[in-house]
Write a structure and sequence with these properties.
Layout (H helix, E strand, L loop, with lengths): L1 E6 L2 E9 L6 E9 L2 H8 L10 H8 L7 H11 L9 H23 L6 H9 L1 H16 L16 H4 L7 H12 L3 H14 L4 H13 L3 H17 L17 H16 L3 H13 L5 H13 L3 H9 L7 H12 L3 H14 L1 H8 L9 H16 L1 H5 L2 H12 L2 H20 L6 H9 L2 H9 L2 H10 L1
Antiparallel strand pairs: 1-2, 2-3
Helix pairs in contact: 8-9, 9-10, 10-11, 10-12, 11-12, 12-13, 12-14, 13-14, 14-15, 14-16, 15-16, 16-17, 17-18, 17-22, 17-24, 18-19, 22-23
Length: about 475
């Protein structure tokens, strides 16, 4: 519980923190009040009786600390007499810390001269990505420093908005670095997300990104470690007494929820199936997530030979995500339901033609747009998450679905869907609907079922060979 105490000519809002090993209680200073004018502002005096924004700012800065505002405001009233009337805030709140850190960084940069020390050159090379990014950031900040004043960027006379702007990574910084990941620049993204996690101790989302990068690099245990760290950090900021229905509407819960999903995903990839299933259960029971566990279970069950459960899990989602129809098709094939397998695979292929080809080993051209990239990535992700299955029983089903895609009727339809998607990209700016309507028709389960029924001869022949 936070409370107010006096310190010389200041009032400080503090929080007692008990050390987990020694049991000793240390005081964490949450905020320092330097003048009567600031205290009156916090109390809502002198501004038309309106409550100041201080309450929101402090709660935003420390979302995991319980603040009893009636007691805090009473503490400020009781101690206001120790404060001076006015205070020079610019030096303390705005300039001092920035100047100190700037000088410390500049001093290190000045001393690390590669002309004098080979070791300094090695140091510059070791941190070249971070330094290049900081060069861009400095130019970015300098280019924007002459902003016109408006209601959104002006601070109060006490600079409390600047002092309490939030403990996390600024949104624009995260978006910039996340852009490197989205564009596949994993080396740069990994260095910079590690840099951000060093700069901001509780940056859970940084570990989520580092885990995803490790997954891309097939470093599965490293990825699991990052996701576990993201859950640990994210849980610290998880609000208490919140309805499960609000978990995804609250920004503070999302890093934790994403980390649990990613961890389940990674445990499957690592072959730690029982652990992955336990997290599926937690996602459902504790956090009300029913969709992602169904997707994860479908892959886990295929990897472990539980065909009926795999098919049922994937089919639950096919109307929400047609790529799940590709997963369901493999389970239906293993169950001997050839017509259903063909229909399901066609539905997935008409929505994700590149993914379908990737899963059966047919080479595809490089993606040319965002939709192509999403299609390609879906195939890669499914293949990786079904690795145990694909290396075993899946070899036979892959051969079947490859032969199925190579049937003349299917090849023509796949060529048509590719052409229709291309036309739609050209037409959607003009308002024409011809390509969109045809694409929508071809991507329905009903269309896939009708087309699969036309291949009954091929399917019966395949059945006889089983």
């Amino acid at each position: 519980m936070a409370y107010v105490r006096k310190r010389g000519k200041q009032l400080i809002i503090v929080q007692g923190i008990r050390h987990p090993k020694s049991g000793k209680v240390d005081q964490q200073i949450l905020f320092t009040i330097y003048s009567k004018a600031e205290a009156f502002h916090i109390l809502g005096r002198g501004n038309g009786g309106k409550a100041s924004q201080f309450r929101y700012l402090l709660e935003h800065q420390y979302p995991d600390i319980k603040l009893d505002w009636s007691k805090l405001l009473e503490g400020i009233k009781a101690g206001i007499h120790v404060l001076p009337d006015l205070y020079e805030y610019r030096e303390t709140r705005l300039r001092s810390q920035f100047r100190n850190d700037l000088c410390a960084f500049a001093r290190q940069l000045m001393l690390a001269d590669p002309q004098d020390f080979i070791s300094a050159g090695n140091l510059m090379q070791e941190h070249s990505t971070e330094l290049e990014y900081l060069t861009e950031l400095i130019r970015w900040r300098l280019d924007l420093h002459k902003q016109e004043r408006n209601q959104w960027n002006v601070d109060n006379p006490f600079y409390s908005r600047f002092a309490l702007q939030g403990a996390g990574v600024p949104t624009d910084i995260e978006e910039k670095v996340a852009g490197f990941y989205e564009r596949g620049e994993y080396d740069r993204a990994a260095v910079l997300f590690r840099f951000l996690t060093d700069c901001f101790d509780d940056y859970a989302e940084g570990h989520n990104y580092l885990g995803l990068i490790s997954l891309r690099r097939e470093k599965l245990e490293e990825a699991i470690g990052h996701f576990q760290k993201a859950m640990e950090l994210g849980r610290k900021h998880f609000p208490k007494r919140m309805a499960r229905s609000r978990y995804w509407s609250e920004l503070s819960t999302r890093p934790y929820m994403r980390a649990m999903r990613n961890l389940t995903f990674a445990l499957n990839r690592a072959g730690r199936y029982e652990e992955a299933l336990q997290y599926c259960e937690r996602l459902e029971q504790e956090y009300g997530d029913v969709l992602s566990p169904a997707s994860y279970r479908a892959r886990i069950y295929l990897n472990t030979g539980r065909w009926l459960e795999a098919g049922n899990s994937a089919l639950k989602l096919q109307n929400l995500d047609a790529s799940e129809s590709l997963v369901a098709a493999f389970a239906l094939y293993e169950l001997g339901r050839m017509e259903d397998a063909a229909s399901s695979f066609l539905h997935g292929a008409f929505n994700f033609p590149r993914a379908a080809k990737i899963l059966v080993g047919i080479r595809t051209k490089s993606p040319k747009n965002r939709d192509d990239a999403l299609d390609h990535n879906a195939g890669v992700d499914i293949r990786r998450n079904l690795e145990s299955y694909m290396m075993g029983r899946g070899r036979r089903s892959k051969r079947f679905f490859k032969r199925f895609l190579e049937q003349p009727q299917v090849s023509e339809l796949l060529a048509e869907i590719e052409e229709v998607r291309k036309r739609w990209h050209d037409q959607h700016r003009t308002g024409e609907r011809e390509a969109f309507d045809r694409m929508h028709q071809m991507q329905t389960p009903e269309f896939a079922r009708r087309e699969a029924e036309k291949l009954v001869g091929f399917l019966q022949q395949c059945k006889r060979k089983l």
